[in-house]
Design goal:
136 residues
Length: 136
């Protein structure tokens, strides 16, 4: 769909935030995180049940979740028009989802990182603001 740089730039200009979110869904800056199990849990790995005690460290891989075909159809296809980009766990939580506050470790810098990405990419493709309103 985007066989040329011009087509990619046009798609970015049509929706910078969606373009950045889809890019980061496919290649997230945070690829994994850790937590401590609050209660004993049973997990199935390779068809076998394993008991995990409360207090055990747990690492989860966000980048794999962002490629789950049951959540993101054709997960290896770049598609900034996906209607569910807020479900990507790019910033340790679903940035922009209605229940965003329910994620215990969502990145506190997610808004700043989006603003910085828009500024840098906008400068590169000629869509950056020419002035910034600064309160005095």
């Amino acid at each position: 769909a985007y066989g040329t740089s011009a087509k990619m730039v046009a798609k970015y200009r049509a929706g910078p935030e969606a373009y950045i979110r889809e890019t980061l869904r496919m290649d997230p800056p945070v690829t994994s995180a850790t937590s401590v199990l609050k209660e004993a849990t049973t997990v199935k790995l390779a068809g076998k049940d394993f008991e995990m005690p409360a207090g055990m460290f747990n690492q989860y891989v966000l980048s794999m979740a962002n490629r789950d075909p049951s959540v993101f159809p054709s997960p290896d296809v770049f598609d900034p028009d996906r209607g569910n980009l807020s479900e990507a766990l790019t910033w340790n939580g679903a940035f922009g989802a209605p229940d965003e506050a329910s994620y215990p470790r969502i990145c506190p810098g997610r808004h700043l990182s989006m603003d910085l990405a828009r500024a840098v990419i906008g400068h590169a493709v000629g869509t950056a603001a020419t002035s910034v309103d600064v309160p005095v």
